[in-house]
Amino acid sequence: MTIHWLVVAPRSAVPEGDVIGVQVEGHEIALYDVDGEIYATANICTHGNARLCDGFVEGHEVECPLHQAKFDVRSGHATCGPASERLRTYNVRIEDDQVLVGLEQQINATAPA
Ligand code: FES
Predict the structure, then answer these.
(1) Mutate to test the pocket of ligand 1, among 19, 41, 66 (most ligand atoms within 8 A of CB)
(2) What is the CATH number of domain 2-103?
């Protein structure tokens, strides 16, 4: 397993205390700025078909706009029902004022003959 880093947004596109949604290589990702730190999770709620980028950020939690489940954006854990399944989280790096998200990639190595 290796990490494949992709530029997903300019750092300035993520407002402090808020969330935006981006799409990259088939992944819908939510980017959050909490106290100047950037976090990334899956953008689709684990309870239903709602985008967390349309929700509300309070502290380290995002609230789903549909049924108000809450998730900790650092760990992806559901902190308030009705969702119970954790959100996928992504590694984040900032380089040259760009947000990079790390996607895990399976490397299929062929055994030497
Ligand atoms: S779809 Fe998010 S809480 Fe129901």
Answers:
(1) 66
(2) 2.102.10.10
Spans of all domains in the chain: 2-103
Q: How far apart are CA 46 and CA 103, in angstroms?
A: 19
Segment 69-109, tens digit of pLDDT: 999 999 999 999 999 999 999 999 999 999 999 988 766 65
81 close to ligand 1 (CB < 6 Angstrom): no
Mean pLDDT on 29-47: 97
3-state secondary structure of 94: strand
Q: Which atom of ligand 1 approaches the CA of 65 most closely?
A: 2
8 Å CB contact between 13 and 101: no
Whole-model pTM above 0.70? yes
Listed residue (21, 92, 89, 79) closest to 47, CA to CA: 79
